[in-house]
């Protein structure tokens, strides 16, 4: 049951290593869902090189279709979580605790490779896994992280707005089709089983994710906090829409970049978030937003230290009337 204390202590966070773990699951074939062709073509050669030259196979050996060791992707603490924070947590894992998780992983997916088993049974297994994760992060994901993190941050802005307008029930029901709020509890509907998430008075950690898409995941085993990982809004468009999409007639009217920005602002976003998610210079984005705001196509409002922009009804009408807007 979600008690009052759970609601008060629930929060959003981002998880760099969870993103890496799910990217590796897609590249390795453990996930039934593949990366888009362009991402796969770019990352697969790097992934294969890392398997041949690092201990990445040791990390992969601990993954199965339904489970992965919690200490490889520890639940994050906040929206400011960095990969350095995650790796520091991995390295503090006590060896006896790591060995218990490793034993559970091997019971689900036995390993026969003697080299991998030797590393998994060694005294330095935690550090070797941490080093493999660190290298994989920098080689596979670091270059895209600012853009992907911005998409997750925009999702949090949207969910926070839902919470303020309609409360937890609607916000949780909208996270994923397999998540639902029932009688004060959160149910996770999986193909093989239904599980109920019990925060136990410690609150719920909500983590928007890129590479979990189109699935949903949860940490429900102690000592980790109850954690729900769900696909961030806009991820499907990231996979399906080329970055060079033609904004059509609207681009001819206001300019291509302004048309792309206008199309992206169906939900509030800051200048920095837009620049990261669209791969544009922050200063240029700020200038374009100011022009669109002065033309009455955007509104802006301060939220903490950020200024969030969003389309006005006039901006919505322009997007709807465009025969080939950038967000289609």
Provide structural commentary.
The longest helix is centred in the middle third of the chain and has 42 residues, at 125-166. Strand 6 (217-219) and strand 7 form a beta hairpin. The protein is built from 15 helices and nine strands. Residues 241-247 and 324-328 have low confidence and may be disordered. It has a four-stranded mixed β-sheet with strand order 1-5-7-6. The protein has a three-stranded antiparallel β-sheet with strand order 2-3-4. It folds into two domains: 4-235, no CATH class; 242-321, Arc Repressor Mutant, subunit A (Orthogonal Bundle), CATH 1.10.10.10. The protein is 52% helix and 12% strand. With 328 residues, the chain is α/β, with parallel strands linked by helices.
């Amino acid at each position: 049951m979600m008690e009052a204390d759970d609601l008060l202590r629930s929060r959003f966070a981002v998880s760099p290593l969870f993103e890496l773990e799910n990217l590796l699951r897609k590249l390795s074939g453990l996930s039934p869902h593949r990366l888009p062709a362009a991402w796969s073509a770019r990352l697969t050669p790097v992934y294969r090189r890392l398997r041949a030259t690092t201990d990445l196979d040791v990390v992969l050996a601990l993954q199965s279709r339904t489970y992965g060791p919690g200490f490889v992707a520890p639940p994050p603490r906040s929206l400011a979580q960095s990969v350095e924070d995650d790796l520091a947590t991995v390295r503090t894992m006590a060896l006896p605790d790591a060995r218990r998780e490793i034993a559970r992983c091997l019971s689900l997916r036995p390993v026969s490779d003697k080299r991998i088993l030797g590393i998994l049974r060694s005294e330095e297994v935690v550090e070797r896994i941490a080093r493999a994760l660190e290298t994989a992060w920098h080689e596979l994901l670091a270059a895209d992280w600012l853009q992907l993190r911005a998409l997750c941050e925009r999702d949090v802005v949207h969910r926070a707005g839902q919470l303020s307008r309609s409360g937890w029930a609607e916000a949780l029901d909208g996270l994923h089709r397999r998540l639902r709020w029932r009688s004060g509890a959160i149910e996770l509907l999986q193909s093989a089983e239904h599980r109920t998430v019990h925060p136990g008075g410690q609150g719920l950690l909500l983590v928007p994710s890129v590479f979990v898409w189109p699935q949903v995941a949860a940490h429900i085993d102690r000592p980790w906090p109850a954690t729900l990982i769900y696909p961030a809004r806009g991820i499907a468009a990231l996979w399906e829409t080329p970055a060079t999409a033609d904004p059509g007639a609207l681009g001819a009217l206001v300019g291509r970049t302004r048309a792309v920005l206008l199309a992206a602002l169906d939900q509030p976003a800051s200048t920095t978030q837009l620049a990261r998610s669209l791969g544009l210079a922050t200063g240029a984005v700020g200038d374009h937003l100011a022009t669109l705001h002065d033309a009455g196509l955007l509104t802006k409002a301060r939220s903490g230290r950020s200024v969030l922009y969003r389309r006005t009804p006039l901006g919505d009408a322009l997007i709807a009337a465009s025969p080939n807007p950038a967000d289609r």
